[in-house]
Amino acid sequence: MEFIDYYKILGVDKNATQDAIKSAYRKLARKHHPDLNPNDKEAHKRFQQINEANEVLSDPEKRKKYDKYGKDWQHSEQFEHARQQQQRPFSGQGEYSFSGTPGDDEFSDFFSSLFGGSGRSRQTKFKGQDYNAELHLNLTDAYKTHKQTITVNGKNIRITIPAGVENGQVIKLKDYGGAGVNGGPNGDLYITFVITNNTMFKRDKNDLYITVKLDLYTAILGGEITFDTLDGKIKLKVPPETQNGAKIRLKGKGFPVYKNEGKFGDMFVTYEVILPTNLTEKQKDLFTELSKIS
Q: What is the pLDDT of residue 254?
């Protein structure tokens, strides 16, 4: 397995902060995303390398192991255990000593003899590397269950995205990570959803909030208003003398509940009464007369 410099892939220094790594990853992931480069195989390959580098360097524990063991970082615990065992005398033999740095041939040969080469130890199975990826959606996309194809490590994976996923939510796809070692199981794929609100609604878990403008005359006399929702238009009856800032609750008109088909949160509507402007002289006279009556 060839050593891959994850720091070089993200274009950051080995002493880079987590914020710097995150910023570099987001910038490169956007640039090389398969959706923006559908016919560019090199961009796809680059995107996979960027995800792999971020998966390791964004995790403090994995980054620590990578800095110490290089390409063999995934097996660091087994390596430490095996090295301790090898440093003890074998029956009738002297101790096996080792010195080297990650990436050296000696390091790789020694590790290979322990876990899959021709050394004294039997082959040990290891789980493959877990992958991390981001999937960007609009809020309107997350409102309905739909299928989407993502590209991971050169493979197209068609997944079903249940309605109601939240921003920052992570789902696990078992066995879609890196290949196992010596017949071990594949790693897993963890997808983090990044959801952009492209609507006039504010979402709080399964509830939706919206402010609806109401003209003065409808607020005073009552009437009906119509406005757009994520599931078509909705008509509301406005009672007479509705005050500015009045709130109503529409049960079951909110956002779908994740993996609970047919169940929705609520919608909360706040009325904002808009005062008329550019009044004619006759309108002003009528308001003046009304004020005298009041």
A: 96
Domain with residue 34: its CATH number is 1.10.287.110
pLDDT-based confidence at residue 169 (cuts at 50, 70, 90): very high
SS3 state of residue 120: coil
Q: Quick one: tokens of 28?
A: 């490169």
Hey, which bits of 205-293 come out as E strands?
A: 207-215, 223-229, 232-238, 247-250, 267-274
In a domain, 19, yes or no: yes
SS3 81: helix
Cβ 128 vs Cβ 181: under 8 Å: yes
Residue 224 sits in the same domain as residue 150: no
Distances in Å between the alpha carbon of 290 and those of 284, 285, 287, 294? 10, 9, 5, 6
pTM of the predicted model over 0.85: no
Vertex 73: Cα angle to 124 and 154 (nearest 5): 90
* Residue 124 CB contacts under 8 Å (≥ 6 apart), including other chains: 78, 115, 116, 182
